[in-house]
Specification:
Blueprint lengths: L1 E7 L11 H18 L2 E6 L7 E3 L5 E3 L11 E7 L2 H15 L4 E4 L5
Antiparallel strand pairs: 1-5, 1-6, 2-5, 3-4
Helix pairs in contact: 1-2
InterPro entries: Dimeric_a/b-barrel (IPR011008)
Organism: Undibacterium flavidum
Protein name: Transcription initiation protein
C-alpha cells in the first residue's frame, strides 16, 4: 500500500460562486466514500489567510516562503491505496466533484 497525494492549486478551481456549495457537497461526498472504503488518510486545504514562515536550520525565520517558488495553496487529499490505477480512479472522482483537474503524486515514505 502506498500513500498518494491528490491536489490542485487554488487557481485551477474556476467555479462560479453560485455553484460553490454544490461543489463542496460533492467533494465532501467523495471524501466520505474514501473514509467508508478505508483508504482515507487526511484532506484539507491550505489556509491562504495565514502567511507561510521560512525557518532556517539555525532556527531563525522570516515571513514568507521560498521567494523563488510558486505559492503553495489549494486543496489536498491523501489516500492509502493498493495501486497507481486505483489512485487514478480516486483522483478522477475528486476531479469530477471539484470540477477541476487533480495532480497525482505518490509519497516515498521514510519508514
Amino acid at each position: 500500500m502506498a500513500k498518494y497525494l491528490i491536489s490542485f492549486p487554488s487557481a485551477a478551481m474556476l467555479v462560479p460562486d453560485h455553484e460553490l456549495a454544490e461543489v463542496g457537497h460533492n467533494a465532501h461526498a467523495v471524501i466520505e466514500e474514501a473514509k467508508a472504503a478505508g483508504v482515507y488518510v487526511f484532506a484539507g486545504g491550505i489556509d491562504e489567510s495565514v502567511s507561510p514562515v521560512l525557518v532556517a536550520a539555525d532556527g531563525t525565520f522570516t515571513s514568507g516562503g521560498y521567494p523563488w517558488a510558486p505559492a503553495l495553496n489549494g486543496g489536498f487529499t491523501v489516500l492509502e491505496l493498493a495501486s497507481r490505477d486505483e489512485a487514478i480512479t480516486w483522483a478522477a472522482r475528486i476531479a469530477k466533484a471539484c470540477r477541476c483537474d487533480q495532480e497525482l503524486r505518490v509519497f516515498g515514505l521514510d519508514s
